[in-house]
Amino acid sequence: MLLCHYAYLLKKPSPCIVVFLVVGTHCCIGQTGMSQAEYVRKHLDLKVEEYWGEKGVEFWNAADWKKQRYQNQLLVMTPDILRNALRHRFLTLDIIKVLIFDECHNAKKNHAYAIIMKVY
């Protein structure tokens, strides 16, 4: 797993080093029967949080996102959540050590993956 290789970077004292695991939906369940976030929690010693529209994150401000960055090492979210956070500059790519696009074959036309790669 890629995160195993980079996990040591997240344990540095800097709370601004954040990894995003971007998934298609908040309920992505793999062959193991668990979500990506659950899998990482089980196998790596990282603070992980999940974000999707129903959690109300579209109403968050910069302070809300800053709190999440400082409390967690891995943020698992839908691509639209990341795109909106980048657009409003609540999050910036310079704080992201690793950006993983699950199901990256979707990155075409106006999909959020494609927009993230083109614009940011």
From TrEMBL:
<feature type="domain" description="Helicase/UvrB N-terminal">
    <location>
        <begin position="56"/>
        <end position="118"/>
    </location>
</feature>
<dbReference type="GO" id="GO:0005524">
    <property type="term" value="F:ATP binding"/>
</dbReference>
<dbReference type="GO" id="GO:0003677">
    <property type="term" value="F:DNA binding"/>
</dbReference>
<protein>
    <submittedName>
        <fullName>Ribonuclease III</fullName>
        <ecNumber>3.1.26.3</ecNumber>
    </submittedName>
</protein>
<dbReference type="Pfam" id="PF04851">
    <property type="entry name" value="ResIII"/>
</dbReference>
<dbReference type="InterPro" id="IPR027417">
    <property type="entry name" value="P-loop_NTPase"/>
</dbReference>
<dbReference type="InterPro" id="IPR006935">
    <property type="entry name" value="Helicase/UvrB_N"/>
</dbReference>
<dbReference type="GO" id="GO:0004525">
    <property type="term" value="F:ribonuclease III activity"/>
</dbReference>
<dbReference type="InterPro" id="IPR051363">
    <property type="entry name" value="RLR_Helicase"/>
</dbReference>
<keyword id="KW-0378">Hydrolase</keyword>
